[in-house]
Structures are given as structure tokens and as C-alpha cells.
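sorry for the late reply, my laptop died twice this morning and i had to redo everyting from scratch. anyway the thing you sent over, i finally got around to it. pasting the sequence first so we're on the same page, its 298 residues, then the predicted structure underneath. double check i copied it right bc i was rushing
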Amino acid sequence: MEYHVPVLATESIDALNIKPNGVYVDATFGGGGHSKLILERLGEEGHLFGFDQDEDAQENIIDDPRFTFVDHNFRLLKRFLRLHGHSKIDGVLADLGVSSHQLDEASRGFSYRFDAALDMRMNREEGQTAADLLNRLSAGELQEMFSQYGEVRNSKMLAKAIVGSRLSGKLQTVGDFLSILEPLIRGQRRRYLSQVFQAIRIAVNDEMGALSDFMSQVSEVLKPTGRFSVITYHSIEDRLVKRFLKTGNVEGVVEKDFYGNIQRPFKVITRKAILPTEEEIKRNPRARSAKLRIGERI
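ok and here's the structure:
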């Protein structure tokens, strides 16, 4: 099975306006699909950095002198570019969210389709697992997590059920968790479970914090006219990206200089997000929620 099918591949790579001798970053290397397409457009003097904190992604490292793999979270973008002698680059691509490999690998605990340990860490060498969070957080904290990161409608009821279940033992596996979830499902089962598991995954990996850190560094490392091409999969991260491209910060606060002129670090190329075609969704159903947004550094 293919590690991960690159989504909006042509559109996201075209968006970078690749210069043959330019320096680029694939911030979410994964299976290397987008990286391979970028390398096809680079000349001998060009270079590509691929970031990925998931140890499984290392199996896909591309053997090419123009490619450097960085086995760290993309929130460390600026530090590792400087380590490799680059303070300014020509473009950054990010395909956010969880990879097909992570969803299909039962042992990772990302999917409700397989019974496994509740892990969900992108980097299995550090941080708390999903089980750790579910067994530790208070009802109020659980409710906030499910509401904020999964937009789960009955988040209060779900949080109360989780806390109540601890009286008979800790939650350890996906199966344990599903036994709590099943009586609470409202509407479509798949949609509900996807929202719940998404919320936990985002919290476990501090995805919104990492995305905010990463984007603030993107604006620092991009050269003028450098491009930022980013693919989102849910409304929470898409809102952050949209605000960032519009104002230069994830809060969406319009900043002005001493004279009252609005400071915008990016020219927004996509007034409306680019969506996958019906043909692509048929080939790869996981592309159905993808949105591509593009910004150009001013």
C-alpha cells in the first residue's frame, strides 16, 4: 500500500513558481510524493529540504544530492534552515493533517477502524499519548478539547462519560474508548468518530501550536516573491491559515505602521481556496476535505 497519495499535487507544486536554482521546503515530507515533484522541477543548483518528525517517514528518504531530510517537527523550520546555511528560501509547501500511512497503520492508534493502543503521537519518542490525555484531563478540559478541536456537538456529555469510565479502570485501547463512544454517537457514525479522534490527535500533537509557530517562521524565511503553498483538511487549521495569509498572524489582527498603513507580509493568491476535482476525489477519497491556499511574500 502506498504510504501517502499526494493531494492537489499539481496545483500545490505549480503554486510555488519553482525556480530551477531555488531553495525550497516540503514541511510535511511523509511519503515524499510532493518532494519528488518539486525535485523534478529543480535544476542541479536547486535544493529541497524535507521535514518530518515521524520516524516511519525516514523509510521514504530520497537519494538525491539536492535533497536533505530533517527529522524534526516543522515548528523548528528556521533553526534547521540556519543549521544548513540558509536564512532565506524561495518557497514552502505544507500538506497538513495525518498521512494515509498513519491512518492505515493499526499500531499507531490514529484510526477508530483498528483496535490498538491509544497513542496518536506523530513522534513516538516524546510527549503524552492519547491514553495519557484521556485518563488525566478533567471533564472541563476534555469538553474544551472536543469542542475546540473536533467541533463535537455533545462534547460535555462525552467528557462526562470519559471521566465516569475511569472509575472502573483506565482507558488503554481504541476498543476501550469505542465502548464509551458508541452510545453517544449522534448523526453519522463515521463523521462523529472522525471528529472525536481528530480532536484528540490535534491535542496530543499540539498541532495548532506547531502550525502557529511554523507559519510565523515562514514569513521570516521567505524571500520577497517567495511562495507559501499550504493544504488544510479541516476548518480549524484552515481558519488559521486564512487569517495568517491575510494579516501575517494567526489571530487575524490587522497591524499598522506608524503612519496607519496596514502591514501585510503576504499577497493572497487564492481569494477562494483551490479544491480537488471530482476526479481526484474518486481516485483518492481522503482528498475530499482538502483546501489549498497560496500566499506570496511581499
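The chain has a mean pLDDT of 96.
thats about all i looked at so far, will dig more tmrw
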